[in-house]
């Protein structure tokens, strides 16, 4: 059966609210929770960007049942992979093994802040391969020295490790990325319900099988509100960046860049891509392509930080019932 998760959007809520949302999402029955890891929001209207790892540490302590995951962290520019290995292991311990490390090749928006430039996509993928190898090595608990093309480690060791190694999901956006990362990953991460990605994963030598043991984790934005017009307006204000697609979004460096790139996106354009309003059946129909494509897990994003409390109180539980009935 498909599992349904809730997204802790660090771009649209402050750290204390995110922890509160995490507890409420567990209480209403979500199976897992993922957290974005950004230094910037995409648009200034979103208004937040707390440190995701501090938030996740608090969430691990405040929740008991839900699985947790970064969706996703870039372990190459803003963070050195040795530091990511330590952070992930600590969260594995704090969550009693409920944490999985979602990794990706990053976005200029978040990585440019350390002044190291923005590599080409091929270089970013090379860096990610090396980073995964480093994280895996450090998660053995052994003293590790490493010298690669992009990273060096001098006698590093992660001292606090969970009972089982932290599993790693990797974000992939095409067949080339699948072929490269599937043998290195435990789980697939994607933002589009693309059955071809799962097919390519399944035909790649060394890739774990989707469903058992690997999971295919997708994500979809929704904008529930009793007032559809209010939902459309909020989605347009805060989530019109979504219309650009990751091929564009990965290279834009600032919120001003995202605002400029989406200045001609209309509210009706956003409403065509994001289910808006009170109709839970419409949300189910929007999510349906993920389980039809073979995704095992789907994380929902409720657009608009101020709307999250009401969504979790009024709509989340009946929506989960509908999603589970439809996906079964």
UniProtKB/TrEMBL annotation:
Highest rank taxon of the organism: Bacteria
Keywords: Oxidoreductase
Molecular functions (GO terms): oxidoreductase activity, acting on paired donors, with incorporation or reduction of molecular oxygen
Domain Luciferase-like: 3-296
Gene3D superfamilies membership: Luciferase-like domain
Pfam families registered for this protein in UniProt: Bac_luciferase
NCBIfam families: F420_G6P_family
Protein name: LLM class F420-dependent oxidoreductase
High-level lineage: Bacteria, Bacillati, Actinomycetota, Actinomycetes, Propionibacteriales
């Amino acid at each position: 059966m498909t599992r349904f998760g809730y997204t802790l959007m660090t771009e649209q809520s402050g750290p204390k609210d995110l922890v509160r949302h995490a507890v409420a999402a567990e209480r209403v029955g979500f199976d897992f929770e993922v957290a974005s890891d950004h230094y910037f929001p995409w648009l200034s209207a979103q208004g937040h960007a707390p440190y995701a790892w501090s938030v996740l540490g608090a969430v691990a302590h405040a929740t008991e049942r839900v699985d947790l995951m970064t969706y996703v962290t870039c372990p190459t520019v803003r963070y050195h992979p040795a530091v990511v290995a330590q952070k992930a292991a600590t969260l594995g311990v704090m969550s009693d093994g409920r944490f999985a490390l979602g990794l990706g090749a990053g976005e200029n928006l978040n990585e440019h802040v350390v002044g190291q430039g923005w590599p080409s996509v091929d270089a970013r993928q090379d860096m990610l391969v090396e980073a995964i190898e480093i994280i895996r090595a450090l998660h053995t608990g052994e003293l590790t020295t490493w010298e690669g093309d992009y990273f060096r480690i001098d006698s590093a060791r992660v001292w606090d490790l969970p009972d089982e190694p932290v599993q790693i999901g990797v974000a992939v956006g095409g067949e080339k990325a699948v072929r490269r990362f599937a043998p290195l990953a435990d789980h697939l991460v994607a933002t589009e319900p693309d059955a071809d990605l799962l097919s390519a994963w399944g035909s790649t030598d060394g890739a774990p099988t989707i469903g058992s043991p690997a999971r295919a984790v997708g994500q979809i934005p929704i904008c529930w509100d009793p007032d559809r017009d209010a939902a459309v307006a909020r989605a347009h204000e805060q989530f019109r960046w979504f219309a650009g697609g990751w091929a564009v979004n990965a290279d834009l460096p600032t919120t001003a860049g995202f605002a400029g790139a989406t200045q001609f996106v209309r509210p009706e354009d956003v409403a065509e891509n994001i289910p808006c309003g009170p109709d839970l059946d419409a949300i189910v129909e929007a999510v349906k392509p993920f389980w039809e494509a073979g995704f095992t897990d789907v994380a929902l994003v409720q657009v608009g930080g101020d709307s999250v409390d009401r969504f979790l109180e009024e709509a989340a539980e009946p929506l989960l019932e509908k999603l589970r009935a439809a996906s079964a």
